[in-house]
Specification:
The chain has about 150 residues and is an alpha/beta fold. Helix content is about 20%, strand content about 15%. The N and C termini lie far apart (about 75 Å). Keywords: Ribonucleoprotein, Ribosomal protein, RNA-binding, rRNA-binding.
Length: about 150
């Protein structure tokens, strides 16, 4: 039967600390395993993780990033005509709220661009921020229209 008093921790589960500076007979006396003098013998002495002992450091060996990222860039969420064709089976007015409900865009502030991949046969009214010329042609050919904001 196992009781709380009979449970014993494994020998390897608790690491005993080094008893440093307790005489040379202990094996860790005088210099306490740190060798003689120098940076590594001092207290709190550590080389930085990036130090590579005379080898060219990794951040020097790597190529540097070029160019810059524009702060005012607009990231469009692409919506294909084929996706609109699937939604057109249920509704003819396609707005951002409909696209959010279908899980195509995440939030109402997303900027949408309609692209021409796929075909559409049903007339739909699409509300978008931008559209490619080919996508506009496909939607108008099917009898629909795109309302740009």
């Amino acid at each position: 039967m196992v009781t709380l008093t009979s449970i014993k921790a494994d020998d390897w589960s608790r690491k005993t600390s080094k008893r440093l500076g307790r005489g040379n007979g202990s094996g860790k006396g005088t210099f306490c395993g740190k060798g003689c003098k120098g940076q590594n013998a001092r207290k709190g002495a550590k080389y930085s993780p990036s130090f590579e002992w005379g080898q060219s450091p990794l951040f020097i060996r790597m190529p540097k990033m070029r160019g810059f990222t524009a702060l005012n860039q607009v990231r469009y969420t692409a919506v294909n005509v084929s996706t609109l064709a699937k939604i057109a089976e249920e509704t003819t007015d396609i707005t951002k709220l409909v696209l959010i409900a279908k899980g195509i865009i995440k939030k109402e502030s997303d900027v949408i661009k309609i692209l021409a991949k796929g075909e559409i046969a049903k007339a739909v009214t699409v509300e978008a921020d931008k559209a490619s010329a080919e996508a506009m042609a496909k939607i108008t050919k099917a009898g629909g229209k795109i309302e740009m904001k």
